[in-house]
Amino acid sequence: DVPSRVAVFGDMLELGGSSQAEHEKLGRMCDPSLLSWVVVVGVAATQYLAPAARSTGCQVHVARNAIEAGEFVRSITEPGTVVLVKGSQNEIFLEECVKVLCDMTEDAELVRQSDKWLAIKDKYFQQF
Length: 128
Prior knowledge:
Blueprint: E1 5-10, H1 19-29, E2 37-41, H2 43-55, E3 60-63, H3 66-76, E4 82-86, H4 95-101, H5 115-125
Parallel strand pairs: 1-2, 1-4, 2-3
Helix pairs in contact: 1-2, 3-4
């Protein structure tokens, strides 16, 4: 058994007209007997997934960005905690949440770590 389980979800922007329904569906699938926390990042995840997860009884934290999500998860976890980070190819950059949680030597294994991508993400995160 593990001390806790945390799910981090970002917006799923590729869904088009089914975005609201699919975010809500995922939120309703969150089970408080299996998850200690649900952490969301992004407009659709905040607007649709978070309320649906709360309706199942889950504790939900809304983060302004992926780095803040990682900092929150780090603050609530202990060794052995299982963390699922589910992102998509969009502007949420949830790999930065993972970077906060990982040993710095593992950064190179994450997606979008080239100088070009790091510059794009630096510009994005400056808005927060």
